């Protein structure tokens, strides 16, 4: 028994330490996310300042698209701050699903505005005299996906909903992720940061970060998919309540390991090849300037590096959390096993547990036959007045 208590105390102490490390993970990631978007916007503004003014006069839709894109970047800054705030709350108290609601809302609005900007851009290109006749299906999916994700998350979050509703909401979230990651974002945009129609004459598409969480696209999608599978299991109560939390922690830890790998891969590779990352952007080509002339690119590089460091810390936390959760499952499975030498005593019967009746004279109601004390004036069951005896 002492060994079991020592294991519980050890896991409890290490969990506290893991929460502290997790806080630094969120802090680092939030700062890195903010700096990365800040670097993108400053690079973007610096490049646009070098584009000739006459290139903008015949494209009001391009200005509108840029304006919407800048508003989306403001929400991206808010997302970075929300990550820091939630990390602090997770360290100081128990983190709940409701705490993710503001984070999901800000991220969904950011993606929604990016989809709107993309749609305006494609529609504007099609409206020109030499329009490229680009399909609006992909950018419109960039609008539908975030809306569907936000709505389905709200449905899943509502505690009054049945388990079947939570399951349907989780399926809808998976559909929204497919729309966001694969249908609304084409392969060239993912690889280079610009749509494939950048070859269009005098066309300057919006600079876009390759994935919502600034990680490697496929691993980021798998991370969220694994987390949603965990949510489905939780909603349907696939396992017993005693070990459900530990099983959930194991799945989320695996999800964290996958995401950390994608975060490190994408950010460190782009930080080390920042010239290649920026050199493929059509705005820079339109501004007829070299990457070395961009003075603010160092902010973007620092943002990538900090995000990569956050990926390293997140990987450590995920591995530690996985070990803790595995130990808790093992310990819980040991504690629920019945001891063969100590059989449980039989439960007392209702008759044995009831006190012995008092010795009092009784009579029976002539109307309903109910039993009552001899001196009762009315029947306790039907209310019939009893004859005097």
Characterization of the model:
There is one protein chain. Helix 1 (2-49) packs antiparallel against helix 2 (60-92), helix 1 (2-49) runs antiparallel to helix 11 and helix 2 runs antiparallel to helix 3 (101-127). The protein contains 12 helices and 2 strands. The chain has one domain. It has a two-stranded antiparallel sheet with strand order 1-2. It starts with a helix and ends in a 16-residue tail after the last strand. Mean pLDDT is 76; it is low at 6-11, 187-208 and 350-356. Helices cover 67% and strands 2% of the residues. The longest helix has 48 residues, at 2-49.
Lay out the secondary structure.
Layout: H1 2-49, H2 60-92, H3 101-127, H4 137-157, H5 163-183, H6 187-192, H7 217-236, H8 241-272, H9 274-279, H10 282-286, H11 297-335, H12 350-353, E1 362-364, E2 371-373
Antiparallel strand pairs: 1-2
Helix pairs in contact: 1-2, 1-11, 2-3, 3-4, 4-5, 5-7, 7-8, 8-11
Key features of this structure:
single chain; 389 residues; mainly alpha; 67% helix; elongated
The figure for the number of domains is 1
Structural class category: mainly alpha
Rg result:
32 Å
Count helical runs: 12
Q: What is the share of helical residues?
A: 55-70%
Beta-sheet strand percentage?
under 5%
Ranges where pLDDT stays below 50 over 5 or more residues in a row are 6-11, 187-208, 350-356
Number of strands: 2
Strand order of the largest sheet: 1-2
Mean model confidence by pLDDT: 76
Name the shape in a single word.
elongated
Return the string of H and E elements.
HHHHHHHHHHHHEE
| Major sheet size, sense and barrel closure | 2 strands, antiparallel
Query: Whole-Å distance between the termini?
Result: 67 Å
